[in-house]
Design goal:
Number of strands: 13
Radius of gyration: 21 Å
Strand order of the largest sheet: 12-11-10-6-9-8-7-13
C-alpha cells in the first residue's frame, strides 16, 4: 500500500549544494515491469501517467503532489493518500524503480538528485532544469550512483520529426544553409496568474523561449547541429505581472557555417502553428504541426510523394492553449526509448547531457539579450 506522501513546492534554496551522496544501490535485475512514481500532479504529470499506462513493460505505482490533492485524479491506487510528508520519503519507496519529474522547471533538481541518492532511475520533463550548475550536479549524481538520468523532449519522437532527422542524416539537403524555429503562440493572462509559478524566474527560468520555445530550439539544434554564436532580443509586450519574456527573437550562426533564426512568443493572439524550417543547397523542408507544408529535394525519390501525402501540415496544436490538441504519443515514445535503454544497458537517446544542450542555448540567448543583443559565442 501507498504511504501518505507529498512535497512542498518551493524555489530552490540559495546557497544549497546541489549534490547528494548515493545511499542505495541501483537494481541489477531487470524487472518484469518498470514501476514508476511521478513527482508532480499537474497537467504534465497527467501526460506522464497516460504514457506509462500505455507501455507494456511499465506500471504506475504512485503519484506525488504538493499537498494540493490533485494526485487523487490519477486514481486511488496510484495517488498518495491525503496528507503531507517529505519528497524524499516518496522517492525512497521500495515499490518504485523510475521517478519521473513533472514539477515546476526550477524545482526539477531536488527530485532528480534524491532519485540518484536512493538508486532510482529518473526521467525529467523539459527543460531538464533552468541552471547549468544544477543540471551538471544531476548528471554527476546519477553517474556516481550508477543510475540513468534522461530528459523529455517528446517532439523529437513525432513521426514527422523522425523523418526529417533521417533526411538530414542521409545528406539529402546537400549543404545545410539555414534553419528557422518559429513559435507564434498565445497565452491568456490567466495562464500566468493561475499557475502561481509560471512567469517567475525562480521556477519558470524564462518565458516564451525557455518554456514554450525550448521544444523548437531543441529540434533545431538536434537537426542542424551545434550553434556557434547567437544574438537575441526579448521583451514582455502582452502580459502583466510576469518576470519573463513573452516575445523573443534571435539570429543564429551554426558551427557548420549555416545561419538561422528563432522567434518564439506567447504574445500573438490567437496563436497559430509552429514552424520548423531547414534548407540547403539540395532541398528545403518546412515542418508544421505533425506534418510538412513543404518537402522538396533536388533528387526526388519514390518515397517523397508518399511523405507529402501521409504527413500534411496539421492544425496549430498548443498554439492558444497549453493543452489544446495535445496527446501523450510523444511522451509514450520518449518513455519507451528510455526503458529500452535501461534494458539494453545503454544511455537513452536524450540523456542528461543531450537535454542540457537546449537549456545552454536558451541561457545564451538570455545572456545576449541582457547585453543589448551582442553576439554570444557558444564554441
Amino acid at each position: 500500500g501507498s504511504r501518505a506522501c507529498s512535497s512542498e513546492r518551493s524555489a530552490p534554496r540559495q546557497g544549497r549544494p546541489w549534490r547528494f551522496l548515493p545511499v542505495a544501490q541501483p537494481m541489477t535485475a531487470r524487472p518484469t515491469k518498470w514501476r514508476f512514481g511521478i513527482v508532480g500532479a499537474g497537467m504534465i504529470g497527467r501526460w506522464h501517467a497516460e504514457a506509462i499506462r500505455d507501455l507494456p513493460n511499465a506500471t504506475l505505482t504512485a503519484v506525488c503532489d504538493h499537498g494540493s490533492g490533485r494526485a487523487t485524479a490519477f486514481g486511488p491506487r496510484c495517488a498518495c493518500p491525503a496528507g503531507r510528508c517529505e519528497l524524499e520519503r516518496f522517492i525512497a519507496r521500495d515499490d518504485v524503480d523510475v521517478i519521473t519529474v513533472a514539477t515546476p522547471s526550477g524545482a526539477h533538481a531536488e527530485a532528480a538528485l534524491l532519485a540518484a541518492r536512493h538508486g532510482k532511475h529518473c526521467l525529467v520533463e523539459k527543460p531538464i532544469e533552468i541552471a547549468l550548475e544544477r543540471i551538471d550536479a544531476m548528471i554527476e549524481a546519477h553517474a556516481k550512483a550508477g543510475t540513468t538520468l534522461g530528459g523529455i523532449f517528446n517532439f523529437r519522437y513525432a513521426p514527422a520529426a523522425q523523418l526529417l532527422h533521417q533526411a538530414v542524416q542521409a545528406g539529402r539537403f546537400g549543404r545545410l544553409t539555414f534553419g528557422l524555429a518559429y513559435g507564434p503562440w498565445w497565452r491568456e493572462q490567466s495562464y500566468y496568474d493561475e499557475g502561481g509559478w509560471r512567469g517567475t524566474l525562480a521556477l519558470d527560468g524564462g518565458g516564451a523561449l525557455m518554456n514554450q520555445g525550448i521544444h523548437s530550439i531543441d529540434l533545431l539544434q538536434w537537426l542542424m547541429g551545434p550553434m556557434a554564436e547567437v544574438s537575441a532580443q526579448v521583451a514582455t509586450l502582452a502580459h502583466a505581472r510576469i518576470e519573463v519574456e513573452d516575445t523573443g527573437v534571435a539570429a543564429l550562426r551554426f558551427a557548420s557555417g549555416a545561419l538561422g533564426s528563432i522567434a518564439c512568443t506567447t504574445s500573438l493572439w490567437p496563436g497559430h502553428a509552429r514552424t520548423l524550417e531547414l534548407g540547403g543547397s539540395d532541398g528545403t523542408v518546412s515542418m508544421g504541426e505533425g506534418g510538412f507544408a513543404l518537402w522538396r529535394f533536388r533528387n526526388e525519390t519514390p518515397a517523397d510523394e508518399e511523405v507529402r501525402r501521409r504527413f500534411p501540415a496539421g492544425e496549430a496544436v498548443g498554439a492558444s492553449s497549453p493543452s489544446a490538441g495535445f496527446n501523450a504519443e510523444g511522451h509514450r515514445a520518449n518513455f519507451a526509448e528510455f526503458l529500452a535503454a535501461l534494458e539494453a544497458g545503454r544511455p537513452p537517446a536524450v540523456d542528461g547531457q543531450e537535454a542540457r544542450k537546449a537549456v545552454r542555448l536558451v541561457l545564451a540567448l538570455y545572456d545576449s539579450a541582457r547585453r543589448g543583443g551582442v553576439p554570444v559565442r557558444l564554441d
